[in-house]
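User: What would this chain look like folded?
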Amino acid sequence: MLTTNTVLLNQEDGVATITLNRPEFMNAMTNELMRGISQALEVVRSNEDIRVVILTGNGRGFCAGADLVQAAEPKKPATGASKQGDDFNAALRALMDCPVPTIARINGPAAGGGFGLALACDITVAAHSAFFVATFGPNLGIVPDMGATWSIPLRVGRARALGITLLGDRVSAEQALQWGMIWDAVEDSALDTRVAEIAAVLKRSSPSAVTRTRQTIDAAIHNIFSDQLDLEMTHQAVLIPKNMQAGAKAFLAKTTADFSGERG
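Assistant: Here's the prediction, encoded as structure tokens.
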């Protein structure tokens, strides 16, 4: 288990849970917290026993966005923005490049940069009491960041993305589900059970297949159809010899395939 002042990492039975741990500040993001996320994900990368990552927040919120106390501190604007961008963007890149599937467990408000953090995971599941809000433009006079300008329009389309980011209205968990912004919204009391169900499926999947599926889906944004067909076959050339026989046998026998934990 890795523990910093602001991030907890717990590993159990192949599942690593990364918990943002500033509950008194609704897990608002500081440079230290974002470095903690990067460090936790480095542990995940170096430990091939880990098959799934769950990202969540301690207390009553998932993440309130950037810590505005830190943001309001006097500093040279270019230097301060650059340092924050380095730590924040490094954590987002590490999350997007995680070698195993990632689940965002949204236990409460995901605001500002916390909104982007929630959508940077592969599967996002929210409690009914949770909500999402983009506070960037209406409140702070800045553009959305933490990858929000990439993930929100890809999930909900341009019209809704502009409404979300320009108006700053709250999007409930139920509305987020209806719009296809998240995978599931459940009663608060069922959140842990639902996340565990999803983790169990991902844990027994081939890490290599999961990673390559993510890469292929993301590539479809800019590929023409023919290029996408070629990319699919490039990945199949690796995965079919590795997994297909075991998968087919298990399917025919109505059992669960035991895929290797190899990530390549």
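The chain has a mean pLDDT of 92. If you want, I can go into more detail on any region.
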